[in-house]
Design a protein that fits this description.
heterodimer; A: about 190 residues; 3-stranded antiparallel β-sheet; 3 helices; B: mainly alpha; Cytochrome Bc1 Complex, Chain C; 2 domains; two-stranded antiparallel sheet; 16 helices; 2 strands
Chain lengths: ~190, ~425
């Protein structure tokens, strides 16, 4: 193109189609390279805000179950947030298993929320799925709501003895946190 | 005038914005069609590079501050945590630390470009003086940033530099205690240095804006040091200089990447990886490389107040340069004597840097004094005298003239300016 040598070459004379020129191609390649380069430079900045290695290293927690008597739960802090570890009574387990799934807002069987052979242990996140308060109900003297599980004092959400939402504004069950039984009396969360 | 701005933007939405807030028109005027001398060499890319560098420093700095703890018991460990645990923390810190060095390399070249081509002369005096203000702000920011990791060099650098103010008669000691927030460099000092280190870059952004506004009033100088005489002497800034600056930016990033990825600690001092100890001074204490010439000037005279005065004077003299230089010719291309003494100044500054890196004994003492003497003689004696004594070479008729052929003005000496490029 003759105009590549001319001082008017910067004028936007070209576009897609038969008039496309080498200059258009160079502009696109240059622009694309600049965007890729900028993104590559921006990523380390963004990623530095993700959890760091020392934070991730604190993401595992061992809990000794022996001091927890039946009918009681404790709160442990895992990744800076509360986790309920509850030692359920036979009556509480039966109540949880007896509920028909159709009655539930967030249908999930009790058997899917415990480890086989350890039905007396329920380990769930202690953060209300409504707006993040910590529900009451670990101590037998706490208000546990109509369903005998937990009662959130902020907005009145009620959870049953499997930690499932039964009444109130919360949309979902208390999620089961990842854990394994290391022995019959010791679990590792995380 | 009241009413909407008459925008030339075609797109109706952008036009709606532009008629109320004509930022698009301003960008188009100042960075699109802005008439720029057509004979720039690559030394004119360094202002833009400094701008890019400032953005990198602010971006990496903001993210580093998210992981840094400004407390004397935790600062050092928080920096080590950034290096080991924070995702890409090593990259952010090395880019920030070496970015400071790159910033000074770029700015020193920018400054010597101005000295060589007489960019400080009328009508660009204020532009130049704003540049000197930027240099002072940069130095203060860099110094306070170096204190933050709270290593041995951080602590003792902070002690030595703040003690400079104790040289002031009568009020020196109260000023130093005020700077420290106590009776030694301690936690209050670290806290305020962190606060100011975060603040000053934004002050720099503000002064850079003024620097650019002043530049766009007078227009850029150019290697010939003569003003453009019309459209035949200029090119629109875009695409000609956006592209030329982009090439410079690519090379700049290559040098920067080489430093960060292959020699990340080459320009730092290993003693700063030892946590600060207020009871033990390192045997050989030196500032960062970009302060070494000034450090050498500080130590050049056996007088506390004298050394401090000379050191600050070495920068303050630059403010007076537009009036100290009495020559009407800008570019050193047409100043046969200044072109030589300019390089003496460069050599003196490098020599002072080497002297500053060495202990103040033996041969380094006389060399430091010689360099210091030349530095001030250059600005205070040679610059005023040369304007009177030097016979400049004939200037070309216009910027286009030497490019498109033709000799100098009739009657002038038979030297073609391009032969000396």
């Amino acid at each position: 193109m003759a105009d590549t040598m001319s001082v008017t070459a910067h004028e936007p004379a070209h576009g897609p189609g038969p008039d496309a020129t080498k200059r258009d191609f160079l502009k696109l390649v240059t622009g694309a390279s600049a965007i890729i380069g900028a993104a590559a430079i921006a990523w380390p900045l963004v990623d530095s805000m993700n959890p760091s290695k020392d934070v991730l290293a604190l993401a595992e927690l061992e809990v000794d179950l022996t001091p927890i008597v039946q009918g009681q739960g404790i709160i442990v802090s895992w990744r800076g947030q509360p986790v309920f570890v509850r030692h359920r009574t036979e009556a509480e387990i039966k109540a949880a298993e007896a509920v028909a799934l159709s009655e539930l807002r967030d249908p999930e069987a009790d058997s899917a929320r415990i480890k086989p052979g350890h039905a007396q242990w329920l380990i769930v996140s202690g953060v209300c799925t409504h707006l993040g308060c910590i529900p009451l109900g670990n101590k037998p003297s706490d208000p546990r709501g109509t369903y005998g599980g937990w009662f959130c004092p902020c907005h009145g959400s009620q959870y049953d003895t499997s930690g499932r939402i039964r009444q109130g504004p919360a949309p979902a069950n208390l999620p089961v946190v990842p854990y394994v039984f290391e022995t019959d009396t010791k679990i590792k969360i995380g | 005038m009241v009413g909407l701005y008459k925008s030339d933007i075609k797109n109706p939405l952008l036009r709606w914005v532009d008629s109320r807030l004509p930022i698009l028109s301003i960008v188009q005027k100042e960075y699109g069609v802005f008439p720029t001398p057509k004979n720039f060499n690559y030394f004119w890319a360094f202002g833009g590079l400094a701008m890019v560098n400032l953005m990198i420093m602010i971006a990496t700095g903001i993210f580093l501050a998210m992981s840094y703890t400004p407390h004397i018991n935790m600062a050092f460990d928080s920096v080590e945590r950034i290096m080991r645990d924070v995702n890409y923390g090593w990259l952010l810190r090395y880019a920030h630390a070496n970015g400071a060095s790159m910033f000074f390399i770029v700015v020193y070249i920018h400054l010597f470009r101005g000295l060589y081509y007489g960019s400080y002369k009328a009508p660009r005096e204020l532009l130049w003086m704003l540049g000197v203000v930027l240099l002072l702000l940069m130095m203060a920011t860099a110094f306070m940033g170096y204190v933050l990791p709270w290593g041995q060099m951080s602590f003792w650098g902070a002690t030595v530099i703040t003690n400079l103010f104790s040289a002031i008669p009568l009020v020196g000691e109260p000023i130093v205690h005020w700077l420290w927030g106590g009776f030694s460099v301690a936690n209050p000092t670290l806290n305020r240095f962190f606060s100011l280190h975060y603040l000053l870059p934004f002050v720099i952004v503000g002064v850079v804006f003024l620097h650019v506004v002043a530049l766009h009033i007078t227009g850029s100088n150019n290697p010939l040091g003569i003003e453009p005489k019309g459209p035949q002497d200029t090119l629109p800034f875009h695409p000609y200089y956006t592209v030329k600056d982009s090439v410079a930016i690519c090379v700049y990033f290559m040098v920067f990447a080489m430093l960060v990825f292959f020699f990340p600690n080459a320009l730092g001092h290993s003693d700063n990886y030892i946590p600060a100890n207020p009871l033990l001074t390192p045997t050989h204490i030196v500032p960062e490389w970009y302060f070494l010439p000034f450090y050498a000037i500080l130590r050049a005279v056996p007088s506390k107040l004298g050394g401090v005065t000379l050191m600050f004077g070495a920068i303050l003299v630059l403010f007076a340069l537009p009036w100290l230089d009495t020559s009407p010719v800008r570019s050193a291309r047409f100043r046969p004597v200044y072109r030589i003494v300019f390089w003496f100044l460069v050599i003196a500054c490098i020599a002072l840097g080497v002297v500053g890196a060495n202990p103040p004994e033996g041969i380094w003492v006389p060399i430091g004094r010689l360099g210091t003497a030349y530095y001030f003689i250059h600005f205070l004696v040679l610059m005023p005298l040369l304007g009177k004594l030097e016979r400049p070479l004939p200037l070309p008729e216009s910027i286009s003239h030497p490019v498109l052929g033709g000799g100098p003005l009739p009657g002038a000496a038979a030297v073609h300016p391009m032969e000396k490029v």
